[in-house]
Design goal:
Blueprint (H helix, E strand, L loop, with lengths): L1 H18 L3 E6 L7 E5 L4 E7 L8 E5 L2 E2 L10 E6 L10 E6 L2 E15 L5 E7 L4 E6 L2 E2 L4 E6 L2 E2 L7 E5 L3 E6 L4 H4 L1 E9 L2 E13 L7 H31 L1
Parallel strand pairs: 2-8, 9-17
Antiparallel strand pairs: 1-3, 3-6, 4-5, 4-7, 7-8, 8-11, 10-15, 12-13, 12-16, 14-15, 16-17
The structure holds 2-acetamido-2-deoxy-beta-D-glucopyranose (3 copies).
One 2-acetamido-2-deoxy-beta-D-glucopyranose (NAG) binds next to loops.
Length: about 250
C-alpha cells in the first residue's frame, strides 16, 4: 500500500510541478522526464508552448539560451510554436524556454541533446616542396565525444616516435604536423579517421606529394634594388633640371 502511494506520488509530482506554471511545452520528439529532447543533426524538432490557465495578458515569449526569439504576430497569444529545422550541431545543449511575456515566473523549458559526428569524407591533394612544413587537419567535433582519432600513412598507423610527426587533438580538430618534409619519409596517402559511440567511423584522405626544392627567386631584395636605382636617377634628373632652368632664366 505504502509502495503504491509512493508510485502514485512519483507520477503526480511532475504534473503537479508543471501546474505551478500556466505555460507548458509540447514537443516532437517528446522530452525525457527531466526535459531533455534527444535529437540528431539534420532532424527537425518542433516545440509548441501552450497557455493552460487564465491570465490577463496571454502573450507568450520564446527564448533560446536566454536570447529572445522573434515571433510572427499570429504566433504569440495563447499558443506559440517554434520549429528547429534542421537541427545543427550548435544546438547541442541549447535551452528553449517559453514564458508569459508579462511574468517570467510562469515558464517552461526543454534542452536539446544533439547527437552528431563531424562529417569528414573525401580526398584532397596536397603538394609541397622538400623541407617545407606539412599540416593536415580533420574536424573531430562530436557528441558524445569521439572515442578514437587515428592518422595513417599508406595504410599503417603514423609512427609518432620516428619521422618527426606531431599529432595534436583539441576536441574540435585533430592536426598532423611535420616541420620539414622528406620525400622518402613523408610522401604518400594519409588518412584521418574518427570514431564515436553513436556513428560508424568516418575518414578523410590526403594525397601528399613532395616535389624537389626550387631555388626561390629573391624577389623582394630585387624590387628594393630597382626602386633605389630609379630614385637615384630621378633625383639626378631633378637636380640637373634645376641647373638647366636657372641657366634658361639668365
Ligand atoms: C507572477 O506569477 C507569480 C506566480 O503565479 C505570482 O506570484 C506573481 O505575483 C506574478 N507577478 C506579477 C508581476 O504578476
Ligand atoms: C545525450 O545523448 C548522448 C547520446 O545519445 C548520451 O550518451 C548522453 O547521455 C545524453 N546526455 C544527456 C544530458 O541526456
Ligand atoms: C607510400 O606509398 C607510395 C605509393 O606506393 C610511395 O611512393 C611512398 O614512398 C610511400 N610512402 C612511404 C613513407 O613509405
Amino acid at each position: 500500500m505504502k509502495l503504491m502511494v509512493s508510485i502514485a506520488l512519483l507520477f503526480l509530482l511532475p504534473s503537479y510541478a508543471s501546474q505551478t506554471s500556466v505555460v507548458h511545452i509540447e514537443s516532437t520528439p517528446k522530452p525525457s522526464a527531466d526535459g531533455v529532447i534527444q535529437t540528431e543533426t539534420e532532424k527537425i524538432v518542433s516545440l509548441v508552448c501552450v497557455l493552460t490557465g487564465t491570465v490577463d495578458n496571454k502573450e507568450l515569449e520564446w527564448r533560446r539560451n536566454g536570447a529572445v526569439i522573434k515571433l510572427d504576430d499570429g504566433n504569440k497569444e495563447n499558443r506559440s510554436s517554434v520549429c528547429i529545422n534542421p537541427v545543427i550541431y550548435k544546438d547541442e545543449g541549447a535551452k528553449f524556454t517559453c514564458q508569459l511575456k508579462s511574468n517570467a515566473s510562469h515558464s517552461a523549458s526543454v534542452t536539446l541533446n544533439v547527437t552528431y559526428l563531424a562529417e569528414i569524407s573525401g580526398s584532397e591533394n596536397v603538394t609541397l616542396e622538400e623541407e617545407e612544413s606539412l599540416d593536415l587537419q580533420c574536424d573531430m567535433k562530436a557528441n558524445p565525444l569521439v572515442t578514437s582519432v587515428t592518422w595513417k600513412l599508406n595504410g599503417t598507423l603514423v609512427d609518432l616516435s620516428t619521422g618527426g610527426f606531431i599529432v595534436s587533438n583539441n576536441g574540435v580538430n585533430t592536426k598532423l604536423h611535420v616541420k620539414k618534409v622528406d620525400r622518402s619519409l613523408h610522401e604518400g596517402e594519409y588518412q584521418c579517421t574518427i570514431a564515436s559511440p553513436a556513428y560508424e567511423e568516418r575518414s578523410r584522405t590526403f594525397q601528399v606529394t613532395v616535389t624537389d626544392k626550387t631555388l626561390k627567386f629573391p624577389l623582394m631584395p630585387m624590387i628594393a634594388g630597382l626602386v633605389v636605382v630609379g630614385l637615384t636617377a630621378l633625383l639626378a634628373i631633378v637636380s640637373r633640371w634645376r641647373i638647366i632652368a636657372r641657366w634658361f632664366k639668365k
